[in-house]
Specification:
The structure holds two protein chains of two kinds. By secondary structure, chain A is of the alpha+beta class. Chain A contains nine helices and seven strands, in the order αααααααβαββββββα. Classes of the chains: A alpha+beta, B mainly alpha.
Chain lengths: 260, 195
């Protein structure tokens, strides 16, 4: 085989589609032609780099949540139609209440996007629809995974000193734009998820800003959540555990020394 | 959902869940109008679920569901203007036709070079003919083999090879031109060089 013929089939070969006969002849040629071997290597590296760029991106939790809900595929989350009318009445009542009482930190009539996304993530994890990209019961391993995978500064998850038993972590996108990390685990046997964003993402969630110097307590459906700033991050802790338990986890986040 | 319907839904979701990320990335890259991603995925998932009874267990669900998203993306793109089908792929292009040298940057750091060109990569992708883009993305995002791409797109394997080859050549040429404008080593993106 000549260099020209070998290079003519380069991309087919790199794709692993050359077939046994052609593949063997190219292998034989590369074994005796260092120039072509180097050239094939460079082609392969560039092709992989382009492929990785094209394939980069995360699934958007909220998007898939809506898709599955609207498709009436997801058995346990399909909302009975008769509850919609009641929900409408309750919403109207809540709007009226908020109008009368003014802004109230603990109110649930507003539907903050970040809280909604955190609840969506937590619910999907509980239903088994989301599995952490990295599963481990070691907070140090999870810490290392996060630092290697998340494009912004993150800190070690809460540890056993606050009764948190980590189970894993992953990376996701919120509304297709904002990269976020999440940590899942249990505290006092209650499942908890911790959503972590870069502090700069705060600009995209205006409802969080007036409260950035304090802890914010909210409810989304049956989930409680506590959010606030911790170190370099915006952190939302979600679960069914009592508020003070969730707040304890939030307070612990970012307080451990870096492993380097 | 109860009984058989619930079982069907559970089975469908089991197969769909691991594919949500690649399907969304694929739809995002395929569409001329990125804001349609959710609509396209929604329509594709609903169509696929409606036909799930016809899906043969043991066959490739990945290729099957990607076909729905591909068809839906073609339809949506068509509504925004005629689709370019590109050149006849029957005759695969000569992959060694650009006799240029390779720059050290590709040798040493192709990722670093592409980092400069990330935005343009998406733009260049948008310039590809519809089947070229689909073939390239099915390979890159879906990691499908040529035979599977043939099944998804319903075109001969030889055409898959031709579309893929053209897509890669066009993409690199576009990136090379863009890089040259910015003083980066354009020749590093050449698809071939003389032995």
């Amino acid at each position: 085989m000549t260099c020209t013929v070998a290079r003519h089939h380069a991309l087919t070969y790199i794709d692993g589609e050359a077939g046994p006969d052609l593949g063997r002849r190219i292998d034989d040629h590369l074994a005796i032609c260092p120039a072509c071997a180097g050239w094939f290597d460079r082609q392969g590296r560039l092709e992989r780099a382009i492929r990785d760029r094209l394939a980069a991106g995360d699934a958007t939790l909220a998007v898939w949540g809506r898709i599955l809900d609207r498709s009436v595929i997801r058995p346990r989350t399909a909302r009975p139609a008769r509850r919609l009318a009641l929900a409408g009445l309750l919403t109207a009542a809540a709007v009226l209440l908020v109008a009368l009482l003014g802004p109230w930190q603990g109110g649930s009539a507003r539907h903050p996007e970040l809280a909604h996304d955190a609840a969506e993530l937590h619910g999907r994890w509980l239903r088994g629809e989301v599995r952490p990209d990295f599963e481990s019961r070691s907070d140090l391993e999870v810490d290392r995974y996060l630092k290697a995978s998340v494009p912004f500064r993150v800190h070690c998850p809460p540890r056993t000193d606050v009764a948190f038993a980590v189970q894993g972590a992953g990376v996701c996108s919120l509304e297709g734009r904002h990269r976020a990390a999440y940590i899942v685990g249990r505290v006092d046997r209650e499942p908890v998820s911790i959503l972590v964003l870069d502090r700069s993402s705060l600009a995209a969630f205006p409802e969080e800003q007036p409260h950035q110097k304090q802890r914010r307590h909210r409810r989304e459906g049956r989930f409680r959540m506590v959010s606030g700033l911790a170190a370099d991050n915006v952190v939302v802790v979600t679960g069914t555990a009592p508020d003070e338990t969730l707040e304890r986890l939030l307070d612990a986040y970012g307080t451990y020394p870096d492993e380097g | 959902l109860t009984g058989r319907s619930a079982d069907k839904a559970e089975r469908f979701l089991d197969l769909l869940r691991p594919l949500q990320r690649p399907l969304e990335v694929y739809a995002r890259r395929m569409l001329r109008e990125p804001s349609l991603v959710e609509d396209v995925l929604q329509a594709a998932v609903m169509r696929a679920f409606a036909r799930f009874d016809r899906f043969a267990e043991g066959t490739d669900f990945r290729a099957w569901i990607f076909r729905f998203v591909t068809l839906e993306a073609f339809n949506r793109n068509r509504k925004r203007g005629p689709l370019s089908l590109g050149a006849d792929p029957a005759e695969p292009p000569d992959e060694s036709a650009d006799p240029q040298d390779w720059a050290a940057l590709v040798r040493d750091d192709p990722d670093g070079l592409l980092e400069h060109l990330d935005d343009h990569l998406v733009e260049a992708l948008g310039q590809l003919a519809a089947p070229e883009r689909a073939a390239l993305l099915l390979r890159a995002v879906g990691e499908f083999r040529y035979e599977e791409i043939h099944e998804i797109l319903g075109i001969p394997v030889g055409s898959v090879v031709g579309y893929l080859s053209r897509a890669r050549r066009k993409l690199r040429r576009s990136l090379a031109g863009y890089a040259a404008e910015r003083g980066l080593p354009a020749r590093s993106l050449s698809i071939g060089e003389a032995p």
